[in-house]
Amino acid sequence: MSIAETHGKALYDALRQRKTIQPLIETDPSLTIDDAYAINLNFLSRRLADGEKVVGKKIGVTSKAVQDMLGVHQPDFGFLTDWMYVAGDIDVDAKGLIAPRAEAEIAFILKSDLNGPGVTAADVLAATQSIAPCFEIVDSRIDDWKIAIVDTVSDNASCGVYVLGDERIDPSAHDLPNLHVAVTKNGEPLSEGYGHAVQGDPAQAVAWLANTLGAYGVTLNAGDVILSGSLVPLAPAQKGDVFEMTLSDGEQKLGTSVARFV
Fold first, then answer.
1. How far apart are CA 35 and CA 29, in angstroms?
2. β-pairing, 54-60 with 225-230?
3. DSSP of 50-76, one letter per residue?
4. How far apart are CA 138 and CA 170, in angstroms?
5. pLDDT tier for residue 90 given thresholds of 50, 70 and 90
6. Mean of the pLDDT values across residues 139-165?
7. Which of 14, 71, 113, 195 stands 20 to 30 A from 145 (CA)?
8. How far is CA 145 from CA 13, 105, 115, 157, 260, in A?
């Protein structure tokens, strides 16, 4: 098997068997970002063969808080499938989560395609139908979250599942870098952050994603949900935990999202 097939199968088996594997960069120190993307695609192809469908993309490790926490100092990227979407409570066992962590994000819902290179933040806003408060629940198939950039890109950017709030917000009506998010865990204040935590502007983060994926022939498509990166530090989660995020513009509450682990 090729490098992509070997490591893609290992990650797929880890996902389905709910186990972790040794960091790929330790198994093969010669792996590059291009190799990691090929592994990511192979991992994805195995999930698609199971009947999953791509419904969006994600960018991760965009904020300094998350980069410092994980020791990964550049963004990563991955795919969202319909199986990853959770409309209500998060069934930890049914979704095979291993060591989940909750991230509060702004999701973009596109009305037209974005095909890099050359995509700007203004292009992203023009292509966006709405934004929504979102929890991404990241999870790692790598032992003890000991990830380098090659590991997390290969592992579909450490994506587990995601939960969208009900509200759909017009992005042109708000200053995205200054949108504020406040997160509680089990009813107690946990963290807060602003839109500018992700590359200075969530729309700029989505532009980066479009341009990066464009180099591999992948587009952001109309109807896609795009997760733009966490505005706050990742928070470990377990059964029984309830996270709530409130997105506001400083004057009014725009929306909420709840991640309840059962």
1. 11
2. parallel
3. TT--EEEEEEES-SHHHHHHHT--S-E
4. 26
5. very high
6. 94
7. 195
8. 17, 20, 32, 12, 22
Average predicted confidence (pLDDT) for the chain: 94
Confidence grade of residue 53 (pLDDT, cut at 50, 70, 90): very high
Q: What angle do CA 127, 224, 116 make, to 5 degrees?
A: 55
H or E segment to which residue 7 belongs: helix 3-17
Query: What's the pLDDT at 203?
Result: 97
Per the structure block, which two tokens stand in for 140?
């790692």
Cα separations in angstroms, 95 against 39, 85, 124, 253: 22, 10, 31, 31
- pLDDT bucket at 16, cuts 50 / 70 / 90: very high
For 136-143, what is the mean pLDDT?
96
Looking only at the bridges linking them, the beta strands covering 128-138 and 235-236 are unpaired
HSE value, Cβ hemisphere, 13 Å, CA-based, for 2: 10
For 54-260, which CATH superfamily applies? Fumarylacetoacetase-like, C-terminal domain (3.90.850.10)
- 20 has a pLDDT exceeding 80: yes
Is the bond leading into 75 cis (omega within 30 degrees of zero)? Answer: no
Rg over CA atoms, the chain? 17
**Has residue 68 got a pLDDT over 80?**
no
